[in-house]
């Protein structure tokens, strides 16, 4: 198997975008799998819990960030940080415009 060069910005960006999505999916499957996804989204909107939930899911970006920074893969770290800013923009949009 070919070794992956983790010191690329796009790899960090991909890790930073996929990690919170996986965390959100796991949360849904563990706690609300009896609901269909549109019902779950409506339930979260009703209780105004989607913004804090997405914010907590973004904390999963700490793992690849620290792993990459400890291995001195700074370009990958930039990608994870960029993805975190993308998620922050989504959270601000959800908070103020929905």
Task: Summarize the structure in words.
By secondary structure, this protein is an all-alpha fold. It has helices at residues 9-31, 37-47, 50-58, 62-70, 74-97. The termini are far apart.
The residue ranges in which pLDDT falls below 50 over 5 or more consecutive positions are none
Strand residues, percent: under 5%
Provide mean pLDDT, rounded: 92
SS class: mainly alpha
Q: What's the shape?
A: elongated
Distance between the termini: 45 Å
What share of residues is helical? over 70%
Rg of Cα set = 15 Å
Count of discrete structural domains: 1
| DSSP strand tally | 0
User: Secondary-structure element order, as H and E?
Assistant: HHHHH
The major pleated sheet works out as:
none
Number of helices: 5
List the defining traits of the structure above:
mainly alpha
List the helices and strands and how they pair.
Elements: H1 9-31, H2 37-47, H3 50-58, H4 62-70, H5 74-97
Helix pairs in contact: 1-3, 1-5, 3-5, 4-5
Summary?
The model has no long low-confidence stretch (mean pLDDT 92). 20% of the residues are buried.
